TrEMBL record:
Record protein name field: dCTP deaminase
PANTHER family xref list: DCTP DEAMINASE (PTHR42680)
Gene Ontology biological process: dUTP biosynthetic process; nucleobase-containing small molecule interconversion
InterPro entries in alphabetical order: dCTP_deaminase (IPR011962), dUTPase-like_sf (IPR036157), dUTPase_trimeric (IPR033704)
Nucleotidyltransferase is among the record's keywords: no
Keywords, in A-Z order: Hydrolase, Nucleotide metabolism
EC number of this enzyme: 3.5.4.13
Gene Ontology molecular function: any one: dCTP deaminase activity
């Protein structure tokens, strides 16, 4: 079951979910709009290596916005801190942003119960696109879970700003000798 807008509001007020800052004007019939935070990360090497930490550079989005370029992966983040120990959150791009040719969070929309923090957004434009800090970029829906809950305690907990991939921490190389 998915939470309706009024239930999202009630859960945000009674503590079953966290949305900070919470703005009632961002509540939709069955989701909550999240805004783009003020910084972006990009990888600085031609080849991104899944077995290593990759260097990144941070870009601050100015008042005039920032132009995203096709063929580049940008890691943005939500302005809001979002999380729940009760509900399963799913984040998707807004249709109005998709109509501008911007893919948002197309490979990893599901959040874990127990994660609390700013969500890292994978942003990929089809054409050059100017984006602005604070613009509504995505929407989060909350689903009721059934069964026992094991709260998230992973490597991205309490994220503040965009987070680069840390999958290299989880890599087990085939044929590698254990230390």
């Amino acid at each position: 079951m998915i939470l309706t807008g009024p239930e999202i509001t009630a859960a945000a007020h009674d503590g079953r979910l966290t949305i900070s800052p919470f703005e009632s004007g961002q509540v939709n019939p069955n989701s909550y709009n999240v805004r783009l935070g003020p910084s972006l990360l990009t990888y600085t090497t031609a080849v991104i290596d899944a077995h290593r930490a990759n260097p990144t550079t941070t870009v601050k989005i100015g008042e005039d916005g920032y132009v995203l370029q096709p063929g580049e992966l940008y890691l943005g983040h939500t302005l809001e801190q979002v999380g729940s120990d009760t509900f399963v959150p799913l984040l998707f791009g807004r249709s109005s942003v998709g109509r501008l040719g911007l893919f948002v969070e197309i490979t990893a929309p599901i959040g874990d119960i127990g994660f609390h923090g700013q969500w890292t957004l994978m942003l990929s434009p089809i054409r050059p696109l100017r984006v602005y800090a604070g613009m509504k970029i995505g929407q989060i829906m909350f689903f009721v879970s059934t069964g026992d809950i094991d709260l998230y305690a992973g490597k991205y907990q309490a994220a503040d700003g965009p987070q680069p991939s840390r999958c290299w921490r989880d890599v087990t190389r085939v044929g590698a000798v254990a230390p």
